[in-house]
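Key idea: predict the complex, not the pieces.
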Amino acid sequence: MRIATWNVNSLKVRLPRVMEWLELRGPDVLLMQETKLTDEAAPLLPMRMAGYELAHHGEGRWNGVAIASRVGLDQISLGFEGQGPDAEGARFIAASCGGVRIVSVYAPNGRALETPFYTAKLDWYDRLAAWLVRAADPSTELVLGGDLNVAPTDDDVYDPAAYVGTTHTSPAERERFHGLLDWGLIDGYRKHHPEPGRFTWWDYRAGNFHKGLGMRIDHLLMTRSLAERSIAAEIDREARKGKLPSDHAPLWIDFDPA
DNA sequence: ATGGTCGCGCAGCGA
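Result:
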């Protein structure tokens, strides 16, 4: 089983790249973020033609999260309360796919320290942690993945000094990220790749991708029973190249059968 | 190529 996550930065613009990528890499489940679509505009038919069901939660213009699955898709929850968009927008969708509970999230960016947006980011993380405690169980098989907008350690940025005083690396943000691990989640990519300097996002500007100036802010976290079955993890930098790429690369993890 | 983001939506903001 292959589970992947990708911040597509507009599923409308990225649909050709996404469909091409599904064909090429064949994930069983794909978590997406920043679809920037309303539910009415979600590309259900193209996905179905490719063999995937799609659960989408979005209000258009900003945010928007989705789960595509070819191994079943049910028990869909929208937002922390399971009913619709949260105060921070459409940033959370959960569904059960092939026996695994899948959660696709898009954490708030935070913009800058000492702003209300940064405080709201920390609050969102606290609400996510509360949802885990309230509605999930670390002894079950669960994947929490997406654009978490946190680089967990200094190994996850190209130059720690460049990020001092900015978001994504602040102690409070990293504390929130590690709180997810403390609950019972394992960083699936790090299990297979301890080396520093592996990134999932590069700013469109100034040729940062080609200069290797990025951050690892997209993650696939999973409960222990699932992590024990994982056999490989990769970031697909090829998908960041070429025509009309997202500014994020997809990340996938492969599992042995249960 | 001597510069250099993109998406949304149509000005300027958010990332």
